[in-house]
Automatic annotation (TrEMBL):
Membrane topology of the entry: Peripheral membrane protein
Family: Belongs to the ABC transporter superfamily.
Source organism per UniProt: Lacticaseibacillus zeae DSM 20178 = KCTC 3804
Single Gene Ontology MF annotation: ATPase-coupled transmembrane transporter activity
Subcellular location: Cell membrane
Full protein name: Cobalt transporter ATP-binding subunit
CC annotations in GO: ATP-binding cassette (ABC) transporter complex
PROSITE patterns: ABC_TRANSPORTER_1 (PS00211), ABC_TRANSPORTER_2 (PS50893)
Length: 278
């Protein structure tokens, strides 16, 4: 499996800022991988996402996407490969109807009308929003709005989807709805997913997690590697999985617990075994 993203020694400073927003960031992403990016407020997550699709231009270092090195010449081709779903669904709509909205990006790219109609239908079908094609986007629920935003992106046939806090304004049901759609699309279309999130449960479903701290990569590892830091993550301004908090509270009370990260199910299994041997 080849790499679809390669970032090497990326540095970025905003024009009017004193501090570097990203410092010497390097990592690879394999095609078809789900990578979560976590870190405290202001750690550089959104800046990194914008450097990946050329919304911001790296100050130094290189960004390669789908075999192209990001530059003025490649920025439009790269942008076509990387779709970003942003946090606030209301800021993402331009069309008067759901179908118009999904068509917008294709119109801009000069896709012929027949092809456009086909792709709009197909994309709405994939996110389960066909019945809403003629509705006004503003009247949809938060989860439905994000599904429409996702349809607008997949209509453009990207290889990579970045979720930039895309579920953070949704209720738990909306969050599950959107993540479910992404999971299905990822498998059907062999997409690579980067999810920038504060939601620890969303990070836990990734293959790997990048932990950013003050614009630098603190660690890259599997969810088990990262969550094994337990309550130390709180010091980096992050939340800790519920199972780790519970484990910590049990350790405080003198219960012998394994060091490795246990998700909810494995924690229950462990406690059950402990209970059965008492
Ligand atoms: N347009 C801007 N101009 C100047 N500085 C900025 C700008 N946008 C972000 N920054 C600064 O760059 C750093 C990284 O910000 P960024 O938005 O990438 O962080 P983040 O991890 O996405 O934060 P959050 O979780 O709050 O969205 C912060 O110090 C922030 O204040």
């Amino acid at each position: 499996m080849g790499n679809v993203i390669r970032v090497q020694h990326l540095n970025y400073t905003y024009p009017e800022a004193k501090h570097q927003a990203l410092t010497d960031v390097s990592f690879d992403v394999a095609k078809g991988e789900w990578l979560a990016i976590i870190g405290h407020n202001g750690s550089g997550k959104s800046t990194l996402a914008k450097n990946l699709n050329g919304l911001l231009a790296p100050e130094s270092g290189t960004v390669e996407v789908a075999g192209m090195t990001l530059s003025e010449e490649t920025v439009w081709d790269i942008r076509a490969k990387v779709g970003i779903v942003f946090q606030n669904p209301d800021n993402q709509f331009v069309g008067a109807t759901v179908a118009d909205d999904v068509a917008f990006g294709l119109e801009n790219r000069g896709v012929p009308r027949d092809e456009m109609v086909k792709r709009v239908d197909e994309s709405l079908e994939r996110v389960g929003m066909t019945a809403f094609a003629d509705r006004e986007p503003a009247r949809l629920s938060g989860g439905q709005k994000q599904r429409v935003a996702i349809a607008g992106i997949i209509a453009q046939r990207p290889e990579i989807i970045i979720l930039d806090e895309s579920t953070s304004m949704l209720d738990p049901a909306g969050r599950q709805e959107v993540l479910g759609v992404i999971r299905e699309l990822k498998d059907e279309l062999n997409l690579t997913v980067l999810s920038i999130t504060h939601d620890i449960d969303e990070a836990a479903v990734a293959h790997r997690i990048i932990l950013l701290n003050d614009g630098k990569i603190n660690e890259i590892g599997t969810p088990s590697d990262i969550f094994a830091h337990g309550t130390d993550l709180l010091r980096l301004g992050l939340d800790v999985p519920y199972s780790e908090k519970l484990k910590d509270a049990l350790i405080q009370r003198g219960v012998a617990m394994p060091k490795a990260y246990l998700d909810n199910e494995r924690l229950v299994d462990y406690l059950w075994t402990l209970h059965s041997t008492m």
